[in-house]
Amino acid sequence: MCGMNANLTCPAIHSVSLPITAFIGGGNMSSALIGGLLTSGAELANLRVVEPFAEQRARLQQRFPGAQILEAPNAALRNAQAVVWAVKPQQFAQAAADCRAHLGDALHVSIMAGVRCRAIERQTGAQRMVRTMPNTPALIGQGITGLFASAQASEADRALADALLAPAGRRVWVQREDLLDAVTAVSGSGPAYAFYLAEAMTRAGEELGLSGAQARELALATLAGAAALAQGSSEPLATLRANVTSKGGTTAAALGVFDAADMQTTIIRALHAADQRAKELGDALEAG
Ligand SMILES: NC(=O)C1=CN([C@@H]2O[C@H](COP(=O)(O)OP(=O)(O)OC[C@H]3O[C@@H](n4cnc5c(N)ncnc54)[C@H](OP(=O)(O)O)[C@@H]3O)[C@@H](O)[C@H]2O)C=CC1
Ligand SMILES: O=C(O)[C@@H]1CCC=N1
């Protein structure tokens, strides 16, 4: 049951050699995931990446020597045991049409937001699928990934998907496919919310007289420290917040401004918008 529980560890992919694995799309997220595999010690000789953009291909070839970087799908994909769909949702139908004739019996792993198993099956003929939603801290192995397996995926398929994503950080398996949209709203898009908050804290720090570098360091160390404190604590988040908030003090003054602007409701509405957008991306593919 290694694939089903975030707390169990799967065999690391580097302890066995990387099975023949094809990434379709070699952009930001692919690079982060492949970089993680490399850092964890995986041999990249079995890696193929299809990436039509020449400059990006050159970057991939330089960063991942030994991997086969392809301009277009070809026979090198035939024996892939895992195919990782890493194009934008809007690019998937075309990418799948281009690849289909070259793919054999592979596990299909998707990192695409919104794109449902039904659409992947329709576009590729695949039945064994694991949809995943990583996030950009994968770049430094501190991401978190939500995963969902189709009914036809075997335990070995789940373990393979889990191992492919393990270098990116923690994994959380969900039991319903629609929950991946919630994962996307919370953690897939989440780093952007953290950066948004950090940007505002940094700007305010500068307005209050700190240098840009000082304000950035204070803001980022505070967000990282607060997250680490909360992760190591069993206290409710509201209690941790209350512990900072002295009666009549500075924090209360700041939180009063947040509350007057109904910030929590705004943030909750924002995440609902992200969830809704994931559903729209999925609907568009099913309609197309
Ligand atoms: N960025 C993030 O934080 C996260 C992204 N994701 C998901 O990851 C996926 C990729 O996102 P991201 O890496 O940011 O996007 P990128 O645009 O950086 O990467 C997609 C890559 O695929 C290439 N591509 C386009 N068409 C094809 C094709 N037909 N065959 C092969 N490759 C093709 C693109 O080339 P070109 O630029 O020339 O179009 C581009 O290099 C998306 O589905 C997204 O939902 C998931 C979690 C987090
Ligand atoms: O913005 C997006 O659509 C992708 C999915 C999650 C993060 N980036």
Automatic annotation (TrEMBL):
<feature type="domain" description="Pyrroline-5-carboxylate reductase catalytic N-terminal">
    <location>
        <begin position="22"/>
        <end position="114"/>
    </location>
</feature>
<keyword id="KW-0641">Proline biosynthesis</keyword>
<keyword id="KW-0963">Cytoplasm</keyword>
<keyword id="KW-0560">Oxidoreductase</keyword>
<keyword id="KW-0521">NADP</keyword>
<dbReference type="InterPro" id="IPR029036">
    <property type="entry name" value="P5CR_dimer"/>
</dbReference>
<comment type="pathway">
    <text>Amino-acid biosynthesis; L-proline biosynthesis; L-proline from L-glutamate 5-semialdehyde: step 1/1.</text>
</comment>
<comment type="function">
    <text>Catalyzes the reduction of 1-pyrroline-5-carboxylate (PCA) to L-proline.</text>
</comment>
<dbReference type="InterPro" id="IPR053790">
    <property type="entry name" value="P5CR-like_CS"/>
</dbReference>
<dbReference type="Pfam" id="PF03807">
    <property type="entry name" value="F420_oxidored"/>
</dbReference>
<protein>
    <recommendedName>
        <fullName>Pyrroline-5-carboxylate reductase</fullName>
        <ecNumber>1.5.1.2</ecNumber>
    </recommendedName>
</protein>
<dbReference type="InterPro" id="IPR028939">
    <property type="entry name" value="P5C_Rdtase_cat_N"/>
</dbReference>
<dbReference type="InterPro" id="IPR036291">
    <property type="entry name" value="NAD(P)-bd_dom_sf"/>
</dbReference>
<dbReference type="InterPro" id="IPR000304">
    <property type="entry name" value="Pyrroline-COOH_reductase"/>
</dbReference>
<comment type="similarity">
    <text>Belongs to the pyrroline-5-carboxylate reductase family.</text>
</comment>
<keyword id="KW-0028">Amino-acid biosynthesis</keyword>
<dbReference type="Pfam" id="PF14748">
    <property type="entry name" value="P5CR_dimer"/>
</dbReference>
<feature type="domain" description="Pyrroline-5-carboxylate reductase dimerisation">
    <location>
        <begin position="177"/>
        <end position="281"/>
    </location>
</feature>
<dbReference type="GO" id="GO:0004735">
    <property type="term" value="F:pyrroline-5-carboxylate reductase activity"/>
</dbReference>
<dbReference type="InterPro" id="IPR008927">
    <property type="entry name" value="6-PGluconate_DH-like_C_sf"/>
</dbReference>
